[in-house]
Amino acid sequence: MKRILLIVGVLALIAVALGVTVRVHAAFPKPTAEIVTLDETKRATLLRLRAEKKFQPNDYPPLGYTGMATPEDEATANTALNAVIDGILARPDGPVSARTVTNLFGKAMSSVWLLETEDRDRTQGYLLEIWYIMGFKGATGRFAYGSYFGRPKGYGEPLPPGWSSPDHPRPIGGAAT
After folding, report:
1. Going by C-beta distance under 8 Å and a sequence separation of 6 or more, which residues neighbour residue 95?
2. What is the DSSP letter of 167?
């Protein structure tokens, strides 16, 4: 009898774990297979973003940001973001796949995983800026968002902080794009 209860208990735990895994997986959208063109305009905007002093306090909707918790955390996050930008800029002008960019995003998010939630969220906001700057419309497949973060019609990701529409970004590097 004990053996049967043990087996039933283990099977119940496996079923619960599988259910949780399915629900978590469903929260993340299927990544897009888009290909966009890297050109001089996108390259210039990415260079401005790279040069910008990032992680400053702001009140961009839908949530404000109080700034990075520590200078060390800021250095970690800046290094991760700049690695994504450098990875894109290292490519020649021409086609860039969503998979290439989302793989860079994955590496960046792995680098900032231990930062405070607000700082990780702001890092994701910068990654979304890169996504929109590149001209992708589908989902990255890397981020799950709640209903508070609405997506523009025809887009798979919410607007980055401070952007009023997909073609009206915040001033990046002190200049409007």
Report:
1. 35, 36, 37, 38
2. T
- pLDDT tens by residue, 26-85: 455 688 899 999 999 999 999 999 999 999 998 887 678 999 999 999 999 999 999 999
Half-sphere exposure of 132 (CA within 13 A, CB side): 28
Sign of CA dihedral 133, 136, 142, 146: positive
Q: Angle 14-15-19 (CA atoms, 0-180°, nearest 5)? A: 115
pLDDT tens digits for range 19-36: 544 454 445 568 889 999
Q: Report phi then psi at 132, rounded to 5.
A: -70, -40
The two tokens of residue 25 are 């997986």
